[in-house]
Amino acid sequence: PTQGEDYFLCRNGKLFPYTAKIREPLLIVTGDLPPAPSRIRNIEDKESLLKNIYEMANVLTSNSFYRAQFKQLCYNPQHEFELIPSMGRQTILIGNGKHLEEKLSQLEIAYAQGISYMDPARYSQLDLRYKNRIIATKRQ
């Protein structure tokens, strides 16, 4: 978060304070996030942004392909979500997070049918915000 301390959001929806003792590979969420709540410790009790992040993280970590492909979720200044892949230098713009499974399924098919055969370093961004369409922006 931009203010306050870092925190963990557990798979069961509970919030925990950050500790450096955890060494597991985790999905990292960055950006203009709300600060950790001081009293409420369950995601069901918090505002929609944290709940949206929680739901997207569950989608990303429940699928082995997505879990291997994406290591960071970023909430950008335009209030849209971007995925940062573990390999490559492009960002994947997913918008507000709605229909994430459909968008990621479409991306997985595109990777299998062509993107993996092209040089991914040629593109700075893949835009998944539109239905049945992936817009690739060439790196300048």
How does this structure look, described?
- The chain has 140 residues and is of the alpha/beta class.
- The chain contains three helices and eight strands; from the N terminus they run βββααβββαββ.
- The model has no long low-confidence stretch (mean pLDDT 81).
SSE layout and pairing:
Blueprint: E1 7-9, E2 15-17, E3 28-31, H1 48-62, H2 64-69, E4 70-75, E5 81-85, E6 91-95, H3 100-113, E7 123-127, E8 135-138
Parallel strand pairs: 3-4, 6-7
Antiparallel strand pairs: 1-2, 4-5, 5-6, 7-8
Q: Quick gist of this model?
A:
The chain is α/β, with parallel strands linked by helices and 140 residues long.
The percentage helix is: 25-40%
Average pLDDT over all residues: 81
* Continuous helix count: 3
What is the overall shape?
Answer: elongated
- Our measurement of the CA-to-CA distance between the termini, rounded to an integer number of angstroms, reads 31 Å
Low-confidence spans:
none
Q: Looking across the biggest beta sheet, what order are the strands in?
A: 3-4-5-6-7-8
Strand content: 25-35%
Q: What summary fits the major beta sheet? A: 6 strands, mixed
Gyration radius, rounded: 16 Å
Structural class assignment: alpha/beta
Number of strands: 8
H-E order: EEEHHEEEHEE
